[in-house]
Specification:
Layout: H1 3-12, H2 14-23, E1 80-82, E2 85-86, E3 100-102, E4 109-110, H3 114-117, H4 124-134
Parallel strand pairs: 1-3, 2-4
Helix pairs in contact: 1-2
Length: about 150
C-alpha cells in the first residue's frame, strides 16, 4: 500500500489504521509531508513512522503512540496532545505552539533531553504545562521565569 492509502486509512480512523499496521507492519513507513490536520487520531499507533513535516494541526492525538517517530518539523497547532507517548521521538524543528498538552503524568510519555528542546518551538503555555509536571516532585520545586528571546 502506498502513502496515499495509509493516509486514507488514517482518515477513516485510528481503529482501521491500527488494524492495517498490525496486519502489514512494514507497509509505508514514511508519511512525510502528509496533511493529517483536523483528524481524529485518538489511540493511533504511529510509533517508529517517519512523520517529517506532517501537519497535525487541530488533530486529536489523545492516547496516540508516537514513540521513536521522526517528527522533525511537524506542526501541532491546536492539536490535542494528551496522554501521547513521545518516548524517544525525534522532535527537532517541531512546532508545538498552541498545542493542547497534558497527560504526561498518566499514560503519556515524553523524554526530557537536549534534542527535545533544541530547535523545537514550544509556546509559553506548553512549557508551563511541562514544568508543572516536573513540579509535582515532593522534595524540590522548580522556580522559573519564562522570558521570550529577542523581544
Amino acid at each position: 500500500m502506498d502513502k496515499e492509502g495509509i493516509v486514507a486509512a488514517l482518515r477513516s480512523g485510528a481503529k482501521d489504521f491500527n488494524a492495517l499496521r498490525q496486519e502489514h507492519p512494514q507497509v509505508c513507513q514514511d508519511l512525510s509531508g502528509a496533511d493529517l490536520s483536523g483528524l481524529d487520531l485518538h489511540g493511533a499507533q504511529m510509533g517508529r513512522l517517519t512523520l517529517r513535516d506532517v501537519d497535525f494541526s487541530s488533530a486529536d492525538l489523545t492516547g496516540a503512540n508516537l514513540s521513536h517517530a521522526d517528527l522533525r518539523h511537524a506542526r501541532f497547532k491546536g492539536a490535542k496532545v494528551v496522554g501521547v507517548n513521545l518516548h524517544k521521538a525525534e522532535l527537532a524543528g517541531a512546532d508545538f505552539r498552541g498545542a493542547i498538552l497534558g497527560g504526561f503524568d498518566g499514560d503519556g510519555r515524553i523524554c526530557l533531553n537536549t534534542w527535545m528542546f533544541k530547535g523545537v518551538r514550544w509556546g509559553r503555555e506548553e512549557l508551563e504545562r511541562l514544568l508543572a509536571v516536573l513540579n509535582q516532585n515532593e522534595d524540590w520545586e522548580i522556580r522559573y521565569q519564562i522570558v521570550a528571546k529577542g523581544r
